[in-house]
């Protein structure tokens, strides 16, 4: 049968890959892009805090920061956070100078900085951890990221939804043109994108954190490009 049918399906949020569009396919076929999307609620979080202190000597600056970090870590552990879920970065020390016009820079002390990343596995406790951090002497909450613990399960669900979407599109198109879908000739899959939030969780300590994270939803998407043969 001397015929050639090419159907390309695009969605508003994705495009068929260059390699798929450039494929030299000489037999009747349909190309589709399947999109899968799963919306779920976060059940855990990771937040980062920072301690910054300035003292006359580097030793005193380091000691001040270490004291705050020790108190913060102890409180978290007392409240049930596993030690493995508390990650403290290395301390940084640098001299601080005062600059005045027409004079040499004057050394006024040394600044010590240290960050701590905390994984929260009980989302209901996140807000109390954040409030406690500021009470422990933490200078700022620099980052909050909501997550879902069983991420791989939802990624697999999104992937299977994308595969089904590609099949359904191909079957619908073939039916509309009076054709039948045969086997799969080519599958193009790219690494699935990381889960995203419906709203930004980049905030400082002045934000209404509790209401924001409780209302948030996580979107997990996946995509697959498929070339289907058409039956002769």
From TrEMBL:
Gene3D superfamilies, alphabetized: Protein of unknown function (DUF541), domain 1 (3.30.110.170), Protein of unknown function (DUF541), domain 2 (3.30.70.2970)
The UniProt record lists the keyword Transport: no
UniProt KW keywords: Signal
Signal peptide from the UniProt entry: 1-22
Transmembrane segments annotated in the record for this chain: none
Signal found in the keyword field: yes
InterPro entries given in the database record: 26kDa_periplasmic_antigen, SIMPL/DUF541
Single GO biological process annotation from the record: DNA damage response
Pfam families recorded: SIMPL (PF04402)
Protein's name in the database: Oxidative stress defense protein
